[in-house]
C-alpha cells in the first residue's frame, strides 16, 4: 500500500472527526482547526491541499493563520491594491524564471558593456 495514501486516510479521518472547517483559498486548499482545544496547548491548524502536496500553494494570509501569527486570515476583500496575488513556486515548469542567456531562451546574451573586469590569476 502507498504510504502517502495511508497518511491521507489518517488525515481524512482526523479531519472528519476532530476538525472544524475554517475556510478555503483561491487554489481550492481547505483549512481546518481542532473542534476542541487541549488545555495548555494551541488549537491544531492544518491544510488539506486541493492538488499535489505543494506547500508553496498556501497564500501568505493563510500561512500566517496556520502559524498563529494572526487569529483570522485576511479576507480577499481586505487585500490592498498594492498586494500582488500569490503565485506558487513555478520552478521546473514552463513558467519558471529564465534569465537572458538561459539555454531555453537560445543560450545567447548581450555582450558585457565594459563595466566588468574579469579576474585573472596572479594579478
Describe this structure as you would to a colleague.
- One of its GO terms (biological process) is response to oxidative stress.
- Pfam families: NDUFA12.
- This protein is an alpha+beta fold.
- The chain has a domain at about 1-75.
- Helices cover about 20% and strands about 10% of the residues.
- It is built from 2 helices and 3 strands.
- It has helices at about 5-20, 60-65; strands spanning about 20-25, 30-35, 45-50.
- A 3-stranded antiparallel β-sheet has the order 1-2-3.
- Strand 1 (about 20-25) and strand 2 form a beta hairpin.
- The longest helix is centred in the first third of the chain and has 16 residues, at about 5-20.
- The chain is elongated.
Keywords:
123 residues, alpha+beta, 3-stranded antiparallel beta sheet, 3 strands, elongated
Give the termini distance in whole angstroms: 63 Å
Helix content: 10-25%
Rg for CA atoms: 22 Å
Strand order of the largest sheet: 1-2-3
Number of strands: 3
Show unreliable segments. none
Helices, by number, come to: 2
The overall pLDDT average reads 84
- Percent of residues in beta strands: 5-15%
- Overall structural class, as computed from helix and strand content, comes to alpha+beta
- Order of helix and strand elements from N to C terminus: HEEEH
Largest sheet: 3 strands, antiparallel
The geometry reads as: elongated
Organism: Acidisoma silvae
Protein name: NADH:ubiquinone oxidoreductase subunit NDUFA12
Region (Disordered): 88-123
Pfam families: NDUFA12
Amino acid at each position: 500500500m502507498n504510504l502517502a495514501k495511508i497518511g491521507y486516510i489518517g488525515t481524512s479521518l482526523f479531519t472528519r472527526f476532530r476538525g472544524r472547517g475554517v475556510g478555503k483559498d483561491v487554489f481550492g486548499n481547505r483549512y481546518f482547526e481542532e473542534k476542541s482545544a487541549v488545555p495548555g496547548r494551541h488549537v491544531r491548524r492544518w491544510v488539506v491541499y486541493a492538488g499535489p502536496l505543494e506547500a508553496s500553494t498556501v497564500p501568505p494570509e493563510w500561512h500566517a493563520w496556520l502559524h498563529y501569527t494572526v487569529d483570522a486570515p485576511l479576507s480577499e476583500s481586505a487585500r490592498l491594491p498594492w498586494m500582488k496575488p500569490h503565485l506558487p513556486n513555478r520552478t521546473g515548469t514552463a513558467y519558471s524564471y529564465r534569465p537572458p542567456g538561459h539555454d531555453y531562451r537560445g543560450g545567447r546574451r548581450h555582450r558585457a558593456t565594459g563595466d566588468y573586469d574579469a579576474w585573472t590569476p596572479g594579478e
